[in-house]
């Protein structure tokens, strides 16, 4: 039992992976082999990068002890800004850079307000959720811009791989996931992020620039949300001002299902991905097994509550274990 | 005789109108282990915070090894060899011993501008040594600090200070909230400072603890040092009477 707890504390995403395996097996059986067919996998893997990228940013931010509820709105705002600029013929790259600049400004503003006025980031970013969504609608003017034909969408949407199983966006997603994962576990900055969320006073006492670390994580969360939004808009070939609604909560759900602690300090990028994948698998699996699709949110909700209850129980149990001096 | 490791000359500190430190003069020789006692609000914590770089004195001078010291942050103090162990301890429970030991001072394999890849092998190796040096026996440096007992955590904190060759170790009530057995273990760590040539300031409410592990005892009251004598030249009763 004791070893099980230690493994759990070091690899909090393992429970999610186990659940994922079970769900995949169940859906595969119930759907008579359709679930793991190339066509269906293409659907799941094509959508995963969008929610996955948002989940990665939100998870890293949660590990350092803060929240970002504005990601769903930033998801819509970034491509809207970029598309409006593209329509004015300033070119693909400048338009995208401008979009990212808006994301960066929002992320830094989230961090600045939260830290400067010492208020919960939950509140700051809840406010930003409304502000960014409103800006998106205002900018679109009610008429979404039309994307130019000559933009290199293929960089993100092209089907590639054996049998065209994945999209280019999947490669971007994997690369960013690997980088974020390496940042957390292999670099000193990862150490600072975990310590800032794990025990702020201790980190500050050891000279960690805790406010700088938090600003960086707010920034990352916003940039990834904007990038994910861009990918979705290029896939749909149309920037709608309503995309990404409710995405912030899916991202938080993905993070906690993957073992990220709401109190900070604990979590992994892999966990976030597993959480995001679980949500996608449930969404898709329910449809394939001909369950009324309206049960989707019910299942995600139940899973989220179950994951947090299980996590906190395991953590309490683990805390009561001490290493004996030997 | 060599220069005092730390010297305060006429140090004053005001907090919003409260005169927290009044003309504190203090000099601690290398290798000394000094007990600092006094009631709540006597100025102990204020003095310690100035020594560890958390606050700055409003008047007076601070000398480290004979040289005037400007400390604007805990990092500056650490650079000068002053390491502080706080009562709520300065370890992150959700991280491993090795990661805690090197927190903020991680050895890097490759890096630019102070950011880069951790040298995990060196962290593991050196933390095993550091822990063994303070006579603390733990199975692995990969264990999470949250799994350790309070006394063991203080042991790791002391190991960290030793490892970074601190000249002055400030222990701010490290035995608070610890059981008798754990307290004795921590007092043992403090006794171990002297043989390693580390100077220590041990802040405590408990005069008995101070007598068990210090060379010299300093008492503070109302922001002033009211008593300063070698442990051999005084008694517990004398100090208790005065406080």
Describe, in plain words, how this protein is organized in 3D.
The complex is a heterodimer of chains A (326) and B (243). Chain A has 326 residues and is mainly α. Chain A is built from 14 helices and 2 strands. Residues 322-326 of chain A have low confidence and may be disordered. In chain B, strand 4 and strand 5 (67-68) form a beta hairpin. In chain B, 30% of the residues lie in helices and 29% in strands. Chain B has 8 helices and 12 strands. Chain B is globular, with a radius of gyration of 18 Å. Chain B has helices at residues 44-51, 74-79, 97-101, 120-133, 150-163, 180-191, 207-213, 236-242, and strands at residues 6-15, 18-28, 33-38, 59-64, 67-68, 82-85, 108-112, 115-118, 168-172, 199-203, 216-221, 224-230. Classes of the chains: A mainly alpha (326), B alpha/beta (243). The A-B interface holds A 9-10, 186-192, 194-195, 198-199, 201-208, 261, 265-266, 318-319, 321-323, 325-326 and B 73-75, 78, 84, 86, 88-95, 99, 102-106, 108, 111, 114-118, 120, 136-139, 143-144, 146-149, 152.
Please provide a brief summary of the model.
The complex is a heterodimer of chains A (326) and B (243). Chain A is an all-alpha fold.
């Amino acid at each position: 039992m004791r070893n099980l707890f230690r493994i759990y504390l070091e690899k909090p995403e393992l429970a999610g992976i186990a659940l994922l395996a079970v769900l995949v097996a169940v859906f595969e059986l119930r759907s008579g082999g359709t679930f793991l067919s190339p066509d269906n996998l293409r659907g799941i893997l094509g959508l995963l990068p969008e929610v996955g990228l948002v989940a990665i940013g939100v998870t890293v931010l949660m590990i350092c002890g803060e929240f970002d509820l504005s990601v769903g709105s930033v998801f819509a705002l970034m491509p809207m800004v970029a598309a409006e600029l593209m329509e004015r013929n300033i070119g693909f790259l400048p338009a995208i850079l401008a979009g990212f600049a808006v994301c960066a400004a929002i992320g830094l503003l989230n961090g600045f307000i939260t830290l400067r006025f010492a208020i919960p980031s939950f509140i700051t970013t809840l406010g930003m959720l409304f502000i960014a969504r409103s800006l998106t609608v205002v900018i679109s003017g009610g008429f979404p811009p039309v994307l130019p034909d000559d933009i290199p969408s293929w960089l993100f949407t092209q089907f590639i791989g054996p049998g065209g199983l994945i999209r280019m966006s999947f490669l971007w997603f994997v690369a960013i996931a690997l980088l974020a994962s390496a940042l957390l576990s292999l670099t000193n900055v990862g150490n600072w992020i975990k310590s800032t969320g794990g025990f702020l006073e201790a980190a500050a006492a050891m000279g960690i620039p805790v406010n700088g670390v938090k600003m960086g994580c707010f920034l990352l969360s916003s940039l990834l949300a904007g990038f994910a939004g861009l990918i979705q808009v290029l896939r749909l070939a149309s920037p709608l001002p309503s995309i990404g609604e409710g995405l912030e909560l899916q991202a938080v759900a993905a993070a906690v299902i993957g073992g990220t602690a709401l109190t900070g300090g604990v979590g992994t990028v892999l966990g976030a991905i597993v959480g995001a994948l679980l949500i996608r698998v449930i969404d898709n699996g329910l449809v394939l097994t001909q369950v009324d699709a309206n049960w989707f949110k019910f299942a995600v909700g139940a899973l989220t509550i179950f994951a947090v209850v299980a996590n906190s129980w395991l953590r309490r149990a683990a805390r009561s274990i001490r290493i004996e001096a030997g | 005789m060599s220069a005092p490791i730390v010297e305060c000359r006429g140090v004053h500190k005001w907090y919003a109108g409260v005169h927290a430190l009044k003309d504190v003069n203090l000099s601690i020789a290398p290798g000394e282990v000094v007990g600092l006692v006094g009631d709540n609000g006597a100025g102990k914590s204020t003095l310690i915070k100035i020594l560890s770089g958390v606050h700055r004195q409003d008047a007076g001078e601070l000398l480290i090894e004979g040289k005037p010291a400007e400390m604007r942050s805990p990092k500056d103090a650490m650079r000068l060899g002053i390491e502080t162990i706080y009562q709520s301890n300065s370890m992150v429970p959700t991280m491993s011993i090795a990661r805690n030991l090197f927190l903020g001072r991680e050895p890097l394999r490759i890096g630019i501008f102070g950011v880069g890849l951790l040298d995990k092998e060196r962290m593991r190796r050196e933390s095993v040594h550091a822990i063994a040096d303070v006579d603390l026996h733990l199975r692995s440096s990969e264990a999470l600090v949250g799994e350790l007992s309070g006394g063991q955590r203080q042991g790791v904190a002391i190991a960290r200070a030793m490892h970074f060759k601190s000249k002055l170790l400030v222990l701010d009530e490290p035995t608070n909230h610890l059981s008798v057995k754990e307290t004795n273990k921590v007092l043992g760590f403090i006794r171990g400072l002297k043989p390693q040539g580390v100077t220590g300031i041990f802040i405590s409410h408990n005069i008995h603890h101070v007598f068990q592990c210090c060379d010299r005892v300093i008492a503070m009251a109302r922001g002033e040092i009211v008593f300063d004598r070698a442990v051999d030249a005084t008694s517990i009763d004398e100090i208790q009477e005065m406080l």
